[in-house]
Amino acid sequence: MATVLITGGTGFIGRHLCQQLVAENWQVIVLTRSSKAGTRQLPDDVRHKVRLIESLDQLEPELVIDGLINLAGEPLAKGRWTAARKEKFYTSRIGTTEQLCAFFSARTQRPKVVISGSAIGFYGGGTGDSNGDNKPVDESSPVVDNFSHQLCSSWEQSAAAFEALGARLVYLRTGIVLGHGGALEKMLPPFKLALGGPIGDGQQWMPWIHIEDMVALIMHCLSCDNISGPVNATAPNPVSNAEFSRTLGVVLRRPALLAMPALMVKILFGQMGEELLLQGRQVIPRKVQDSGFNFQYPLLQQALSNLLAIKK
Ligand SMILES: NC(=O)c1ccc[n+]([C@@H]2O[C@H](COP(=O)([O-])OP(=O)(O)OC[C@H]3O[C@@H](n4cnc5c(N)ncnc54)[C@H](OP(=O)(O)O)[C@@H]3O)[C@@H](O)[C@H]2O)c1
Q: Which of 30, 128, 285, 307 lies 20 to 30 angstroms, CA to CA, from 110?
């Protein structure tokens, strides 16, 4: 049985990933800030099959760790980006990654594969079609500099040390993950009350991915020896924010016409609103598609119908 160490394993993506890893017979170890809280967060079917640790020193020297999946990070979309929260975004991601690198440098046994977090924010801001910002963005596209780019870039650079340790290193540039929990849960209430609609002019792109495809894509990166470097974890058909709102309205059978003006977004959410809600680029998953990965939910309407049908 192969062993994988996960940070952020108690989170929205991590919980689903733990289930799949256990189903595929991996021994799963989750590094968490609190084993007690983490145990409660894990799904019932895997709670007692996953080992939770609060410190890397708990890993026995003779234990072979085959893979490392590094997802831990203070949530970005919880509120305004104050200086204190920005600092937490960095320490929770880059600080954690540096600790992992230092721990494994001092160890003779090291993971053969490291999958480390990043986000589509790496590519920086874009305001969409009406502004001529309509080019597909793959893993080799140029970036636009902003805070999201700087954070993702620093996160990726902090993981680069694993390459020097001989690991195959993948950076997951993740889009908006759709599932029960996460961003969709926050979007649903206004849409269910027929109070939803586009944000700003709705032209900004919203690259998204169904949680099942997200987990399958991570499993693909774990096992596929010829994948390394940045990997866009997004569905092959990104949509504009206006199209996302329209599709969500159709699936919920509610009108989705109430636009939220850009100025209101800026006043309510500041820089977080500008970068996460009013900007977005047309990110496509070129690398995994070229490697033969098949998306179960390539189209938004399919993904939302699947998720919202289960919820009813
Ligand atoms: N979900 C998305 O749509 C999406 C999109 C793009 C990128 N991402 C990135 O992918 C990663 C996983 O996403 P997710 O949605 O699963 O995140 P999540 O549900 O917010 O979980 C993140 C995990 O990180 C750990 N964490 C949170 N705050 C921390 C802090 N201040 N210091 C150290 N650890 C902390 C927590 O683990 P413990 O409590 O067990 O310590 C938590 O379970 C995140 O880094 C996120 O930025 C997610």
A: 285
Ligand 1 near 117 CB (within 6 A) = yes
109 C-alpha to ligand 1 centroid (Å): 27
Query: Distance from the CA of 93 to the center of ligand 1, in angstroms?
Result: 9
Would you tell me which CATH number, out of the four given (3.40.50.720, 3.40.50.1980, 3.40.50.300, 3.30.565.10), belongs to the domain 66-311? 3.40.50.720
Burial class of residue 153 (count of CB atoms within 10 Å of its CB; 0-12, 13-18, 19+): middle
- Please tell me the number of Cα atoms within 13 Å of 148 on its side-chain side: 28
Ligand 1 pocket member 177 (CB < 6 A): yes
Q: How far is the CA of 120 from the centre of ligand 1 (A)?
A: 15
| Minimal-distance CA residue to ligand 1 atom 24 | 72
112 backbone dihedrals φ, ψ, rounded to 5°: -80, -30
State if residue 8 touches ligand 1 by the CB under 6 angstroms criterion.
Answer: yes
Residue pLDDT, tens place only, 253-283: 999 999 999 999 999 999 999 999 999 999 9
Enumerate residues 6+ apart whose C-beta is below 8 A from 20: 215, 216, 219
